[in-house]
Amino acid sequence: MDVIHKMDETYENLVRYQIELEQKNTELEEVQTFIASVQSSMTDVMIVCDVEGRIQQVNKSLEALTGRAAADWVGQPLSELFAPSSKALAESFKERLLKQPVHDCEVSMIGTEETVPLSLNCSTRFDPRRRPVGAVLIGRPVGELRRAYEALNKAHDQLKEAQKNLVQAEKMASLGRLVAGVAHELNNPISFVYGNVHVLQRYVHKLDEYLAAIHAGDLDEALEAQRKRLRIDKILADLAPLMEGTLEGAERVRDLVEDLRRFSGGQKSRSASFDLSHVVKTAAHWVLKGARREIDVRIDLPEPFLAVGHAGQLHQVVMNLVQNAVDAVAEHPAPQLRVRGGVAADMLWLEIHDNGPGVAPADLEHIFEPFFTRKPVGQGTGLGLSISYGIVTEHGGTLRAGASDLGGAIFRIELPREAADGGEAEAP
To answer: Which InterPro entries does this entry report, sorted A to Z (predicted)?
Structure first.
């Protein structure tokens, strides 16, 4: 009976072990199926090798990349997969790959028709006792990614070139307005220079006749009569004012040409101290000369108003801001423009106000972005404020927009100022 009882227990144990073994086999098959499905669905190349660098397993992505079955690679040296330029990495497998992980190392693998660049990552495999038994290498083909980057870079270069052309177009538009103002301003001083010179020429003829009479030895009575007839005394009195007017006209022409030279100068010009008041008044004068209607303009700036930087570039900024203000008040029945400035601490400030419709609050955070404009198509490129913002920033300053107490918009510029003796006006 004892023997029979023991046999029954042994049979029960065998049955239980058999059931557990079948369960373990089922779980193992499920795990193997799961791992196989993961490996087959991987788009990246996977290579498993031992500590000697011999291939133990690869996935379907490597089969597709190399055109060879996985069984053909099992047992082969890892270096057989790589192009000559990358064999050194595979040959240093034990010395390098098993000691520390490899991240994003670019290698070239032999493909079906040509070498394929891969971004390779490698991790060491360990046994339960934490001894290295091999490595797992994961490689991602970077050919498509590289071509995408190249296309992106090309598109970016094209966009930069287009933006550069638009910026140049905006500069040329500003330069066109400036040249129109210069042409208008040059006409006035040149006209009275020419007029004065012609008058001087007539005076010279009369002086020649008078002096010729003196040299001829005429009688004193006749000489005095001729002096009165030719109005020599009045001519002598007019000579000094005429010459002063001629010199003033010439100086104005010189100043206009100098302002034009500064404006058209590149950004690589040397920084220098200059009178910002003169720059602002000149820029405003040229823009307002081209306005199609009268605008109530008031300019309140300290004298002198010294700044450090590129006068031509800041001239362009002021012209852009004043032009925007003029455009904003074009439909207003009583257009107004106010320009104020002062100094505070180590900064100087300049404000341009208008009583136009102003800037919508939703547009304030985008107003200095390239190509952003609310003007109708064909009347603005949206680059003027972006260019102005960049110029002011390069000068170490700030350019902000807001609501003016006139009811329209205000643009405020703050710039580092030249250290100068004397009092400072407080900013509002």
So the answer is: HATPase_C_sf, HATPase_dom, His_kinase_dom, HisK_dim/P_dom, HisK_dim/P_sf, PAS, PAS-like_dom_sf, PAS_fold
